Amino acid sequence: MLDPTAAPAARLRDSYGRAITDLRLSVTDRCNYKCVYCRTGTEGAQFTELPIADYLRMVRILVSLGIEKVRLTGGEPLLRAGLVDMVAELSQLRTAFHPDGTPLASGETGHPLDLALTTNGHLLADLATPLRAAGLNRVTVSMDAVDPETFARITRVPRSYERVLAGVRAAQAAGLGPVKVNCVLLHGFNDSQIEAFAEFSRREGVIVRFIEFMPLEEGRTWTPETVVTMDEILRRLNAWRPSCSTAAGLVELPPNVASETAKRFTFRDGVGEIGIIAPVSRPFCGHCSRVRITSDGCDRTCLFSQSDHDLYAVMRRGGTDEQIASYLRSVILKKEARHHIGEPGFEKPSRNMVHIGG
Ligand code: SAM
Hints:
Bound molecules: S-adenosylmethionine
Order of helices and strands: EHEHEHEHHEHEHEEEEEEHHH
Oligomer: single chain
Helix content: 25-40%
């Protein structure tokens, strides 16, 4: 345990002054989908997974350093046994700092963490209610088409669309809404789905977020030409007329928080919400507040890092919580200023998206 009588630590900051408040934790490297733009289809899990107790220890230490949001991911996190109990444990943790970054005084209690999960939704219909009951706040479901045939072609799993739709509806019903639906668009592949996703957002009451495709795939699919940019999505949706009684045109919504990665829009009748996340055409690295832990316990300071930092090795060697905290501080100081997608000399990161945890 961290020594409760020790002087309160300063909040985790990188060498550019960015406060690190957001953890993405991969709880398994296994995935039950083989989405064609993400995976080759011939490779399975490449990295091990840790006992849940070890992940929980890492999170507790990170929370003592200022982490306030935890997003569980994978691989596919719903494949991980013990996930619901893990969420219940995480929901007991309390933040350690005031919103202005000053540490809580002794006797003061922080607020519960913001607990979120990113999933392909295949197993969500059965797990949404238990996860909500355990204390999960929000869920993001990845969907790259709303046409069942295209969907199954992308995931390489028959009847996957029906499963995921049931998962989205179960999550909304369980109180995990509004569910966010993330869609990665690729030219000539699923870009025909833009307007259909807008319909889907309005019909299902979900927030649809289009994410620009990044060079993070197992294969070699990415080229600048495959990316459907924010400008193109805006052009398409601004020309789209949601219904005969509603004029065409998006209406911009204010950001929920200053560091929000998505630009938000609705339609003229206020029904539906579209977010666009544009890491390629409009990078937001200057606001990055994230750190990642892979399923095998490595710390990654950026999706595009060229190497991992083996946090679990420090634990295996018997490191105390203080030593682990000090290791994490030193790692965060190495956080990259920004990514270099599309620049000459860009090097692919040392791991692909599915093996980092998106
Ligand atoms: N299995 C979970 C899921 O499907 O949400 C979590 C892991 S998955 C790798 C996380 C997200 O990364 C998915 O929304 C997926 O579409 C996205 N993703 C995968 N490869 C990507 C890439 N090259 N560029 C942008 N997003 C990508």
